[in-house]
Design goal:
Length: about 300
């Protein structure tokens, strides 16, 4: 493991007070478990209080438990196997199941502390009041999230598009105007072509909403930032944890937009569901296929006419 945050924890433990020493010992004994625990759970195990946990994190140079957890997870990922930031090569099937599920759950649950309700509200208002909402992304994972968001907004009756092609992103950005909204989705947040599209959209007066890491170049170029930071994945830049976190954010945004649009959104969603159901799509059971040979001639004459 690198210079590691755990080395810093061990060094601090030598001079820490008794209550803080208890917290530091728990971190050293089972750092993976600490990643899954809340303030209250960690404080209870350490025999201390939530303020003690916060002060211990600050002693280590972090503003709070969330920032400490992100740094710890980063260290563990760098020192772990190339399979998954929590999984070792020798782990059993039960271990893999437990670790991957806990990792995903931790990434999603961390959103409650990361997302700013004021920013979510501002983003919702911008989307509801927009003449058009265009979603930009680069890459397979972010591209899927952008397409999913576009489909959700479309069901709510909003004019929306999703673009992963740079040429189309630029054309969109140049035509959005002051009443348009561009939603740029990128966990890494440093794709040059995406940044250029965002730059053009802002120059044309559009509101830019970014779903990205808080310290990314994309965040610096956006009007509103939906900040999501998850521990680094050893396999891909955008691992499963980041993917699930982004999907959760667009679900939150979709619900907020539907709330603002009120009865109109509810009626549209019901209508879409009924149309899909009546056309044999989105059914829980397999529809029975019937072939009425007796009407074949009539159908042929109708098509001919």
């Amino acid at each position: 493991m690198t210079e590691s945050l755990l080395n810093r924890v061990a060094a601090l433990k030598e001079t820490a007070s008794r209550t803080r020493r208890g917290v530091l010992e728990l971190i050293l004994d089972d750092p993976q478990r600490v990643l899954d625990e809340s303030f209250e759970q960690l404080a209870e195990r350490a025999g201390g209080s939530v303020p003690t946990i916060i002060r211990t994190c600050r002693d280590l140079g972090f503003s709070g438990l969330r920032d400490f957890k992100l740094a710890l997870a980063h260290d563990l990922a760098l020192g772990g196997s190339p399979l998954h930031r929590r999984v070792q090569v020798e782990d059993s099937v039960e271990d893999v199941l437990s670790k991957v599920v806990k990792s995903a759950a931790s990434a999603v649950s961390s959103l409650h502390a990361q997302l700013d309700p004021a920013v979510l509200n501002a983003a919702t208002e911008a989307i509801v009041g927009a003449s058009r909402i265009d979603c930009y992304a680069v890459g397979a994972t972010s591209g899927f999230v952008a397409s999913d968001l576009q489909a959700r907004l479309c069901r709510l009756g909003l004019i929306s598009n999703a673009y992963t092609d740079y040429h189309l992103q630029l054309a969109s950005a140049a035509s959005l105007g002051p009443t348009g909204v561009a939603i740029a989705i990128s966990h890494v947040g440093s794709m040059p072509l995406l940044l250029e599209s965002v730059k053009v959209a802002r120059a044309e007066g559009a509101t830019v909403i970014a779903l990205t890491r808080p310290d990314s170049p994309l965040a610096a170029r956006a009007d509103l930032v939906l900040s999501v930071d998850v521990p680094e994945d050893p396999v891909m830049h955008v691992g499963t944890d980041a993917y699930l976190a982004h999907l959760t954010v667009i679900e939150i945004l979709n619900v907020l937009v539907a709330q603002r649009r009120g009865a109109d959104a509810v009626n549209r969603l019901r209508n879409v569901r009924e149309v899909l159901r009546s056309h044999g799509i989105d059914l829980w059971h397999e529809p029975e296929l019937t072939w009425d040979v007796s009407n074949k001639g009539a159908l042929a004459r109708e098509q001919h006419d």
